[in-house]
Amino acid sequence: MHQQSAAAEGLLDPQERRLRRIYPLILMSTIYKQFWITFVSVFAVFALALGIIAAIHGSNPDPPTRQLAGFALSLGVLAVVAIGVFFLDLATRRCTIAGGVCWLLLAIVSIVPLIWTLQFLADALGGTVHVIRELPVQGALLLASLAVCAFIPFHYSWVIFRGALALLAAPRAERKAMSEPSPGTTFASRFLIGFWSLPSTFEFVRRPRLRFAAAFVLAILAALLLSSALVLALVIVIPTGKDTDLSWLRFVGVVLNDICVGSPPTQACVALTNRVLLIGGAAALVVTVLLALGAGARALVRRLVSVSLDHMQRADERTPVLFLRAFGDDQVPLKPPRLPLVARLLELGHRQSNLDRMLVDEATSYGPVVALGNPEDKRPPYGAARGYFEDKTWQQAAADLARTSSVIVICIDSTDGIWWEVEHLTASRHLGKTLFLIHPRHRDAEANASLIKRLAEGLRLPADAALGPRS
Questions:
Q1: What confidence tier does 466 reach under pLDDT thresholds 50, 70, 90?
Q2: From CA 281, how far away is CA 349, in angstroms rounded?
Q3: Which of 38, 105, 357, 457 is spaced 20 to 30 Å from 416 by Cα?
Q4: 43-63 confidence digits (pLDDT tens)
Q5: Which of 251, 366, 381, 377 is nearest to 320 (CA)?
Q6: What single string gives the DSSP state of each residue in 416-458?
Q7: Sign of CA dihedral 319, 303, 345, 220
Q8: Residue 413 CB: number of other CB atoms within 10 A?
């Protein structure tokens, strides 16, 4: 048994590490894609409107043809960038070598901003050290902000570099699996759900139309808020080395060195230091508010696309995927994956937190994910489509759904209801389409072995068959 576990870990760990390194690149490319394509669309509408108004009123001295040529050139450049980001996102999601090469080039190019970061950091530290001697509180706040702004560019570049190497190291079978489209989904639904990071159940929410429209608008708003937060944060912390550089390190270094270094803490220096901190605090607050609003909008989208079992069966005629679990633990909690800081920030409001949501995201392409609803629910939570039955017992409802489902996923726990379901699945010969999962609370070796032993008894299997061949 231990040899089998070690062998399984040997197979899974490299792939898990690789996917964990690639996943932040998928998040970043998605955010960039949403931001740039929306920005180009908005720019095209406003620039065209302004050009038409200027041409009609004659407020621009340039002839209309020259105005249109300048507009077309600007739009063309932005469109090329947007298309490039779109294909980078596609190449990253499909785990292609081209995607790995592009990210590796970006990692190499990012070395230049890292050099500027060190240069501007030295200048900023000079002014900050002088301030901290005379104004300890303001100096400590400035020093903390410089530490954050110095850490993020290096962390960002390291995440890109590791992800690029992981993309290039992915085996052919893994690339093929990533590039295959999900079964049972149309191109339109894949595009909408994938492009705007919509929940998998969105395509089944067609009525009422107001809820459908609200969910779609909120999903777009969430994407724009989160992408704007990321872009703004990068503008603040990553220097460009130009005169128009807006990075915090350069700003602090230029302002404080010009006023405070080499002089006692004059009233002008104190006022300027407080103003610098106020600007930095305002910028951090704006990024935080954008992230919070984006996460909140994503949470609202999930609530809007929560559907009942009856609604799901009317909207999707495919045979369902049945999820069985204990009512007392309606949504089985899962430990979030270990991800770098940038990925955790980009996943705000969207991180998988329970087995219910994970099944919906991963299994909806094979069939609608359904479950028995907890009678104590005030409203169905986001996840599997819940069924609430007043004309039959939960055992009768579970038996009916198990008979008509193509796949059954059951989370094994030490409750009487779960063991009744195990007994029913065995007696009804549904084991061939059943996937058994152990509840995370039984991850301890002793508790896990005890539960597996009882499961083997419930499935009427020999103990050796359940535990594997002995070494």
A1: very low
A2: 24
A3: 357
A4: 777 777 776 776 666 555 555
A5: 366
A6: HHHHHHHHHHHHTT-GGGEEEEE-GGG-SHHHHHHHHHHHHHH
A7: positive
A8: 20
